[in-house]
């Protein structure tokens, strides 16, 4: 495997279909979806029905594909995590899709001992708070942790003012790019071992809409919720739009 084709937040959009061509031409490489397949944005002309059948098409596209979970899937796994833009009509359909085949979906994927992919990125403060077992690979830790206890993955920091119970650090399904930048600055001189454990990777995530087709890199954090796909060359470590 030399290349990774990355699909950020979908929300019913069909730009991901370029991945079909990519895998046909590169059958030994990988496609990673960063989650948020559901709940289209108002004004984009995409209905809940469109988003549902789009998600079905993505799930059928299984070979050499990693499907990560986003915050907009979490509330269909458990409605107690309900957030904005929620489809009552398709709740039961989504719930079955996301829970009947748990092995199909992941929270985290690590590649080449260097790159870590999640929906919104792993904040060191959140990781430290829950003392994830660091004897395993970080993706195994988080995927196992999610299966055992989903509550910490609903953590949302105070920057989100939605009348919910807020936490100091958002989870890897909710962290905003501003939280990542703020934490990087505050931990700049830290000797915290948990900080070093997280910061040993290049993190790739979506979630925070950038309003541009170009990814945003801050140190080893790369946000690419751009409504477009991105290609990572594992040999050079370069993205196609850098």
From TrEMBL:
One of its GO terms (molecular function) is hydrolase activity. Pfam families: Metallophos. Residues 3-176 form the Calcineurin-like phosphoesterase domain. The lineage of its organism: unclassified sequences, metagenomes, organismal metagenomes. SUPFAM superfamilies: Metallo-dependent phosphatases (SSF56300). This is Calcineurin-like phosphoesterase domain-containing protein. Transmembrane segments: none annotated.
């Amino acid at each position: 495997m030399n290349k990774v084709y990355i699909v950020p937040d979908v929300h019913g959009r069909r730009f991901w279909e370029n991945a079909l061509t990519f895998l046909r031409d590169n059958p030994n490489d990988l496609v990673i979806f960063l989650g948020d397949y559901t709940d289209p944005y108002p004004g984009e002309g995409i209905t809940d029905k469109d988003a549902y059948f789009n998600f079905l098409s993505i799930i059928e596209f299984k070979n050499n594909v990693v499907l990560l979970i986003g915050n907009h899937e979490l509330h269909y796994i458990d409605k107690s995590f309900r957030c904005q833009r929620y489809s009552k009509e398709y709740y039961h359909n989504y719930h079955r899709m996301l829970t009947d085949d748990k092995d199909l979906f992941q929270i985290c994927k690590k590649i080449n001992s260097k790159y870590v992919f999640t929906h919104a990125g792993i904040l060191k403060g959140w990781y430290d708070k829950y003392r994830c077992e660091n004897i395993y690979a970080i993706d195994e830790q988080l995927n196992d942790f999610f299966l055992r206890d989903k509550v910490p993955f609903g953590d949302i920091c105070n920057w989100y003012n939605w009348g919910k119970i807020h936490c100091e650090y958002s989870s890897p399904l909710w962290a905003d790019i501003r939280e990542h930048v703020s934490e990087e600055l505050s931990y700049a001189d830290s000797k915290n071992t948990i900080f070093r454990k997280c910061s040993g990777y290049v993190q790739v995530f979506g979630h925070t809409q950038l309003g541009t087709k170009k990814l945003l890199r801050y140190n080893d954090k790369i946000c690419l919720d751009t409504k477009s796909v991105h290609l990572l060359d594992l040999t050079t470590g370069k993205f196609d739009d850098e």
